[in-house]
User: Which sequence fits this backbone?
């Protein structure tokens, strides 16, 4: 289905990059990722971003892979100090979609589709997309766009936030219709302004890449790759390329900037680390036909160890645990400083219900990397099967540092329930639901938590639940505004 050009233009001008439905779902205009970023004030920015994230999570399927999330978070933290950003408290979300997409939202929300890993052949190419996104945030493009539309601020905000959520979740036509209703009148003078935003984000992003130790020439390389992809589509290319093309002028400008900047010496370990994370994503995208992911990986001439890693994970998916663990151990012996290899072996042993082995591997890793969240979560999940009280304590420690992690709250709810803390289990399930944007469920869980606390005579817990209920009301009000 071909979507009207005006609606695609609205989609691109008004939101971070969106995966729209049907044949128009190809994000060939990736340099326009995140066209609405930044904030009105720090408080508004945070409130908008968190409300948007709840909406988004309620409507899309996420890929909650802790190892990949941790890797992306490290990349963002590496870029952030050089991206002119004041607030560096980020939340990373992974969308389980093959569509080429990434976005940044006010309040430090950074999202990536698994499809970006398929398109970006190397670490610097991937970093160029996120550097561009952080450029939008640092230049407060969201606030500046809202200032130009002050008289229609609230409906515009509602239109593009709701529209992006629905479109990204697979209901593209409904989302685009929502945006069309609020923004068609504002479309005529937005094109030049949006292009200015893109130029600013390109400038900030490309300079941040150089300063952070990445190759700034990766950004024009990515632009050229997108241009080639669009040209291959011929008449089937999305119509928004007509309004936001990856032009030769833009490619030339980014190339000229990159040529003037320092190019860091490649870090072989960092390069391999990306290849391994990319292998994880490609396998997740091709679980039904793992050979297809392997073809994509081999097509970009990766390190042979990335191929071996992919094959080890595929063996685990095929329940060939011994072979998988043996392959991962060989890779660990070769690259002992790559934590994600050992962490992968922990997860393979856990998924095979080899809990004692998983515990031993996890504890050995955590002696060297005590703060490595993916393995802390894996160890807690194993403990949940063997010693729920121990798992509960481990998860309490994790939540003190990672209170915005839905996976940690979900595990904590299970651990509390299995260790006899019924009210706490309901409360933690409510925390999970509110982070996922399921506010009705969250309030229902709070009601159950309150009833359990009062039945046990635990009025301290009841007061805690009451305080969180008031917080949840604020979260729901923020969502309702959109």
Assistant:
């Amino acid at each position: 289905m071909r979507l009207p050009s005006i609606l695609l233009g609205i989609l691109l001008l008004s939101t971070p990059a969106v995966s729209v439905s049907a044949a128009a779902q190809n994000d060939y205009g990736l340099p326009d990722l995140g066209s609405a970023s930044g904030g009105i004030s720090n408080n508004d920015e945070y409130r908008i971003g968190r409300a948007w994230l709840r909406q988004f999570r309620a409507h899309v399927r996420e890929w909650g892979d802790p190892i990949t999330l941790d890797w992306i978070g490290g990349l963002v933290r590496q870029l952030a100090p050089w991206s002119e950003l004041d607030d560096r408290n980020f939340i990373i979300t992974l969308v389980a979609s093959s569509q080429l997409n990434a976005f940044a939202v006010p309040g430090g929300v950074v999202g990536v589709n698994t499809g970006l890993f398929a398109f970006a052949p190397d670490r610097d190419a991937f970093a160029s997309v996120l550097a561009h996104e952080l450029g939008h945030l640092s230049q407060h493009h969201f606030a500046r766009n809202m200032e130009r539309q002050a008289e229609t601020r609230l409906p515009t905000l509602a239109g593009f936030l709701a529209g992006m959520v629905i479109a990204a979740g697979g209901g593209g036509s409904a989302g685009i219709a929502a945006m069309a209703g609020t923004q068609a009148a504002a479309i005529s003078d937005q094109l030049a302004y949006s292009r200015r935003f893109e130029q600013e984000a390109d400038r900030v992003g490309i300079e941040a890449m150089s300063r952070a130790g990445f190759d700034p020439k990766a950004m024009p390389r990515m632009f050229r790759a997108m241009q080639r992809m669009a040209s291959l589509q011929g008449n089937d290319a999305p119509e928004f390329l007509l309004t936001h093309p990856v032009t030769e002028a833009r490619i030339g400008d980014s190339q000229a900037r990159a040529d003037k900047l320092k190019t860091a010496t490649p870090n072989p370990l960092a390069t391999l680390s990306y290849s391994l994370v990319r292998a994880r994503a490609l396998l997740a995208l091709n679980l039904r036909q793992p050979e297809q992911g392997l073809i994509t990986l081999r097509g970009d001439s990766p390190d042979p160890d990335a191929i071996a890693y992919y094959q080890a994970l595929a063996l685990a998916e095929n329940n060939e645990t011994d072979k998988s663990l043996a392959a991962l151990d060989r890779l660990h012996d070769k690259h002992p400083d790559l934590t994600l290899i050992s962490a992968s072996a922990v997860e393979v042993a856990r998924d095979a219900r080899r809990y004692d082995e998983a515990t031993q591997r996890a504890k050995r890793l955590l002696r060297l990397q005590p703060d490595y969240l993916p393995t802390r979560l894996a160890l807690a999940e194993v403990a949940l099967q063997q010693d729920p009280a121990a798992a509960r304590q481990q998860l309490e420690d994790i939540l003190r540092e990672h209170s915005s992690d839905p996976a940690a709250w979900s595990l904590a709810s299970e651990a509390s329930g299995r260790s006899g803390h019924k009210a706490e289990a309901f409360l933690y399930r409510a925390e999970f639901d509110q982070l996922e944007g399921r506010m009705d469920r969250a309030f229902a869980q709070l009601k159950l938590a309150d009833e359990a606390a009062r039945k046990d005579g635990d009025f301290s817990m009841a007061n805690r639940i009451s305080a969180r209920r008031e917080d949840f009301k604020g979260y729901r009000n923020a969502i309702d505004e959109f």
